[in-house]
Amino acid sequence: MKVLVVGNGGREHALAWKIGMSPRVSQVFVAPGNAGTGVDATNVPIAADDIPGLVNFARQESIDLTVIGPEVSLVAGLVDALEAAGLRAFGPSAAAAELEGSKVFCKNLLKAADIPTADYQTFRTGDDAARFIKDRYPEENCEVPVVVKADGLAAGKGVIVCSTREEALDAIDRITRQREFGEAGNELIIEDRLIGQEASILAITDGNAIVMLPAAQDHKPAYDGDKGPNTGGMGAYCPTPIVDEKMIEMIQENIIVPTVHAMKRNRRPFKGVLYAGLMITSTGPKVLEYNVRFGDPECQPLLMRLKSDIMDILEAVADGRLIDIDPPEWDERPSICVVMASEGYPGDYVKGREISGLNDAAKLKDVKVFHAGTKLTQGSVQTNGGRVLGVTALGNSISNAKLQAYTAVKQIRWPGAWCRKDISDKAL
């Protein structure tokens, strides 16, 4: 069978790599792909948001299943367009994808379904939001533990964690007046800041049955010790000891199942990956946000550990028969993904810098270098994004996996390359 993976990041490289291992798959296409997917699959020069182009390609090539990676494509309705053309797809409809596409919709659904989350207020104008902050915190130098969020999609960067009144007002200004996140800032949320450790819980669902995946922990802030601005994710590891089997069961019962039921009641039945970003607080897990696709970089360490044929899962979801398949099998060893980024990320950065050492890193045992922001130019692999590579490794322990991943990182070079040095230290 033929499979089309949509996207050009590290998540899509990991998906194409794992799908290509299935004995049932004869060819994997990636649209538009990157330098890494060009090695493990066949790249197609169609943008991830070119819905007519993707549908036409899938029809012409008789694609048996399209797997959509990025949230932009899902929110824009790629699954709907494929299914309307009689083609199978893995991912939620545009209506269901609003769970990620609108933080206001998500928070309102959580509240209506009595799913644990932070208290919040929504605002349509910066003036109203600023007035709320000034009324609630009248003293200029007082502590203001809030999180200000742009409503729409902002590539993981539209969430600003604040500690002071000045920071909160500045965040509101950046979102609503400076329009730092464009139309994503047409509405915003101000919510109470939760205290604890973050964890990522991914579940696969066809709208009825649910398969829980091992817990992972992402590292959103740019710098060591969780300092600096938020990014799309600077690394992840799986599993995370802060979420044990008992907590997984509690999260499934109190968060995932009620969310699936609430979406069905809203006539937006959900199928695909339901990714809950959680804060593990002293009173239990609470939902920070939902994503409607595999996380990036969480997807990379997850798929490194997956021993089952991923096509069994993807097809079962697309066909609505997830209840019929066996639970997936996982490698007992933990895995770690370290993101190597371009100088300047998450701000402005330079593209087109030549990357060396990829072959040396690939020779290391239990290491896979997933490409994210790369391109192939006249035979050389060059940087083409902020997050460039996801260096992923398995190990007999978390510390061993970390050592193996950073050993591979040291093999890879380009001008301005950098990474966090503390991925997985929370587990140690």
From TrEMBL:
It is an enzyme of class 6 (ligase). Residues 107-319 form the ATP-grasp domain. It holds the Pfam family GARS_C. It comes from the Bacteria. Its cofactor is Mn(2+); Mg(2+). Pathway: Purine metabolism; IMP biosynthesis via de novo pathway; N(1)-(5-phospho-D-ribosyl)glycinamide from 5-phospho-alpha-D-ribose 1-diphosphate: step 2/2. The keyword Ligase applies. The keyword Protein biosynthesis does not apply. It catalyses: 5-phospho-beta-D-ribosylamine + glycine + ATP = N(1)-(5-phospho-beta-D-ribosyl)glycinamide + ADP + phosphate + H(+). Its EC number is 6.3.4.13. Belongs to the GARS family. NCBIfam families: purD. This is Phosphoribosylamine--glycine ligase. It comes from Rosistilla carotiformis.
